[in-house]
Amino acid sequence: MKIIDYMQEHKLSRADIASRLGCSPQYVSKILSGHTNFSFKTIADIEKCLNIHIMEASFV
Which residue, 7, 8, 42, 52, could crosslink 38 as a Cys pair with Cβ 3.0–4.6 Å? Predict the structure, then answer.
């Protein structure tokens, strides 16, 4: 959801996000559909490239 929010906020297309992440627009579509299991490294790479926080720790 945060990637979609980021795209809308910055008026970016899947191709724009793919360019920033160094991947294909098809892979971005897969990410956005929720059918991807990410490693922590992949999440960290996405966060760094887009300068957003995807995961937030919640301590109870």
Answer: 42
